[in-house]
Amino acid sequence: MVDQSKIRWIIPPLIPKEIHQALDSYPSLFRQILFNRGISTASMAESFLRAHKPLHDPFLLRDLEKAVHLIHNSILQNKKIVVFGDYDVDGVTASVLMVQVLRQYGADVNSYIPNRFKEGYGLTMGALQNVLQLNPDLIITVDCGVRSVKEVDYARNEGVDVIITDHHQPFDSLPKANAVICPKQPDDEYPFKELAGVGIAYKLSRGLIEKYPIPNIKLENWVDLVAVGTIADMAPLVNENRALVRKGLRSMRFGKRPGLLALANVSGIDIHKVKAEDIGFRIGPRLNAAGRLGSADLAFEVLMAETTKQAGSIALSLDQKNRDRQGITKDIQAKAEKLYDPEKNKWMLFYWDKDFNEGVVGLAASRLVERYYRPAIIGVQKGGVIRASCRSIPELNITFALDECEDLLLQHGGHAMAAGLTVEMDKLLFFTEKFAKICERKLENLPLVREIKAEAQVNLIDLHPDLLNYYDVLEPVGIGNPMPLFVARDVECKGIRRIGNTGDHLKMKVSDGKIVFDAVAFRFGEYYEQIQLAQTVDILFSYDMNIYNGRKSLQLKIKDFNLSGLKVY
């Protein structure tokens, strides 16, 4: 729960009568959901719900044709190829996709995923030195590399060809690789700029298959990986991403990839009904746990596994690592919160400790942003440097803010809302002061209130089970196409109890006097007494079907409470 002074519920205007009539083949509340997504006609609704956005020509990506020719020639000449990927889910899925596709062509190809603790993020000089010991003729990066200017120069001087595939924001100066495939680079004509790293790898693979087709290869066999990587990397699920992820979810439901089937099993997911939310909150974190606590090799191996027996044992290990990760994250968050002073930390939060776990500091930073609605940087001191993960709010593009501090940083890069940095201790004070001033300049005239958008204010009696039948066609839901949330006023909470190993969550029944629903509120355990004492509350919630031990029941997932009685907006 966020402090009520830092949160605002946004309820959109009611759907106009003429649009309501134009969408009359859908239930009334679902028409409002469509209208909120900019849909005003039946044809627009059909296109959106069927995810008919075009899959763009891969050769619109700058340098992709150049990369395809180089890969094909390298295969024909039996040259050694190394796929260099990041250690998060996006990088691992891209690595698996690239390696498996190239092996279909008979390529001599292996992967290399750096160790977060030993080599840092991306194509660093330390990681490159280890890759060069494999004697590659060609390095293909996935989900990284577009900012590795000096590293690419070094590799080229060593006689190694380099293809960069990445989706991060590049510097003004691009690496002098044989090919740079990144839709965010200047003068790139690709119409959709928000592909994940695995999406770029998919496009390169499609270009290879279209240019040099071979029998019995179907790129659709890897679209499940595109779905997993895209969702886990929080890429917006709109346009081409929506179409690719929809395809990927359908592919996953056949349960053909042993690793994803095993991960679904340990996560308590029915693979035949898997949704984007399941990947974002269950499968993705388990895959990420490997790289966060050490090497990402287990995540790579589970997705490469060819048998359910092999995948099952790895999935169990990943499940345990995820449990360990959860505990470590909670500890770091608690330590940082003890240091938080809203007067001294008015514009940003920045904490570090030599004992913090480098692999989970980003998760702790995310929790702090969620709670205090300020950009947060959490770092680990190692010798004379601090390596940190940064998380931000929509009002501040954190990568652009770090770019302004480039002269004080050894390394940095990322997205608008998430980034990483490395800074020397003797420059730390200068960086902290400069970054705080940047935050103040960007944020001082803004209200800095977190906004959560609901679909509509409803009476609980309006929540008909038939609405859930239309949720499947909204998939995938996530960034850019959120799970529908609703607001209900003056509801009573009954039978409240804490659940979870440490009582972090709440389970209850909610009623408006006409109907009663089961409800669960994750991470609200500390507000147990406040909610219990309140006579009535306003709730912000999602509506879904809970399936437990084969039993189905309608359930509300409460995302926030308004306990103050104050009007929200």
Distance between the ends: 18 Å
User: Largest sheet, described in full?
Assistant: 5 strands, parallel
- Low-confidence parts, pLDDT < 50 over ≥5 residues? 1-5, 565-569
Residue-averaged pLDDT: 92
Order of adjacent strands in the largest pleated sheet:
3-2-4-5-6
Number of strands: 18
User: Structural class, from secondary structure content?
Assistant: alpha/beta
Tally of contiguous helical segments = 20
Radius of gyration: 24 Å
Provide the β-strand percentage band: 15-25%
The 3D shape can be described as globular
Overview of the structural elements:
- By secondary structure, the protein is an alpha/beta fold.
- The chain is 39% helix and 20% strand.
- The chain is built from 20 helices and 18 strands.
- The strands form 4 sheets. Strands 3-2-4-5-6 form a 5-stranded parallel beta sheet, with helices on both faces.
- Strand 10 and strand 11 form a beta hairpin.
- Helix 5 runs parallel beside helix 9 and helix 13 crosses helix 15.
- It is globular.
- The two termini are 18 Å apart.
